[in-house]
Amino acid sequence: MACRQLLDRRQLWRVIRDHKDGVLLDEGMGRSAYLCTNEDCLEEARRRKRLQKSLRCQVPDAVLATLLERLTPGNQGSAEAN
């Protein structure tokens, strides 16, 4: 989304706007946006509010913090944020 590269979805993080649970990561049904696993792309998406624009809702800081944590080695599991 931020770098606009064409990659396989399995290589990207999926951020979902669910109609009941808010904004989720990786699993769920609803409007989705995809981010590559690059710190520069995450920062660009945060700075330009690309997730908010794509999902058409406010994205909690907890979601962005969880994605930032995933960039550190050993934190590749899925997480859920409301």
Report on this model:
By secondary structure, this protein is α+β, with helices and mostly antiparallel strands. It has three helices and three strands; from the N terminus they run βββααα. It has a single domain, classed as YlxR-like (Hypothetical Cytosolic Protein, Chain: A, 2-Layer Sandwich). The protein has helices spanning 39-47, 50-55, 61-70; strands spanning 12-18, 22-25, 31-36. The protein has a three-stranded antiparallel beta sheet with strand order 2-1-3. It is globular, with a radius of gyration of 12 Å.
Features:
82 residues; Hypothetical Cytosolic Protein, Chain: A; 3 helices; alpha+beta; three-stranded antiparallel sheet
CATH superfamily: YlxR-like
Going across the major beta sheet, what is the strand order?
2-1-3
Top-tier CATH class:
Alpha Beta
Radius of gyration: 12 Å
Which structural class matches the secondary elements?
alpha+beta
In total, how many beta strands? 3
Mean of all residue-level pLDDT scores:
85
Low-confidence stretches: 78-82
CATH architecture: 2-Layer Sandwich
Inertia-based shape: globular
Task: Output the number of helix runs.
Answer: 3
How many domains make up the coordinates?
A: 1
Report the order of strands and helices: EEEHHH
Secondary structure topology:
Elements: E1 12-18, E2 22-25, E3 31-36, H1 39-47, H2 50-55, H3 61-70
Antiparallel strand pairs: 1-2, 1-3
